[in-house]
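Q: Hi! First time doing this. I have a protein sequence and I read that you can turn it into a structure. Is that right? Here it is:
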Amino acid sequence: MKTVGRIGTRVKETRQMLFEMSIDAKVEAIQSLIPLGLMYVEEELQREVASLAGTRHSRAEGRPGHVRWGRQPGSVYLGDQKVPTTVPRVRDRRANTEIPLDLYRQLQTPRGLDEGLLLRVLRGISCRSYRTAAEAIPEAMGISAATVSRRFVEASSRKLKQLLERDLSGEDFVALLLDGKAFGRNTEMLTGVGITIDGRKIVLGFVETATENEMACAEFLRGLIERGFSAERGLLAVLDGAKGLRKAVDRVFAGRVVVQRCQWHKRENVVSYFPESRRKTVRQSLQRAYERPTLADAKAALLRVRKELVLLNESAVRSLDEGFEETLTLHRLGLFKELGRSLKTTNIIETIHSHIG
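A: Yes, that's right. Below is the predicted 3D structure, encoded as structure tokens:
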């Protein structure tokens, strides 16, 4: 109880910083890659400008009458994310008209993310093969990339390495979210996201492993600690129900964390035991119970739902009972009203995964 009390006090320090914190992390993992995608776009725009107006300060290159004409603010879509950028301009002096850039025009509409290529990016990051990851970034973000320049690959490889191996000791983390995403039958990617005391979300890394693989999950967490991630002052860990991941957290952090079990995963696990015709009703009942603001009210409401489920499906009851108390950790800490919207589930990561595949 002392540990819980200490961690509870620490999390309370973040109430104002995290109050109704917006977790609209539409591509939180992809967000980390957007600067690299943008770097590729800017390089390709400059290449197109050179083909139209020649290299800078040249007079004999390019098309007759075409000249560089400064820059202007603009925006492009990388995947489905609209990103501001600065666009070079080319003008035909003979015709006194602006020459539109083909690449810029192509990037004016949102595009889907390529799951296979994005998985290649994440696998490259997971294996620290940053060159492989860098080569796949443009096409993964919906940019046609017949050739990827050596300069781009080398520069983005360095940036990926800096991003995914950066020192974390200067950050004051209060929460750690961990969740896995399955790709087909044989691949699962575990993603870690940290939340700092001032409400920033930091993608900590990816590793290709099943969340049931305790050894691999523990190795991933130890890697975070080696980079300076600390739970010494207390930490809230938000997890799905994977037993291997839960054991890895216990082993690596040795009681220095309190766990909030993802209410979304729990609800969907319970609902899965019912036929489609009953699922909506059960889902709504559980959702209303979890949304109660106090521990006493939420627990009482969940126990009423449990009583109803006993008459319908014993397997659903066993699913609800497993990890029951940990689904109410934020309620127990008295923080559900302030932090429940953001930290009752691993949806920060689920949103990342929804854009990965």
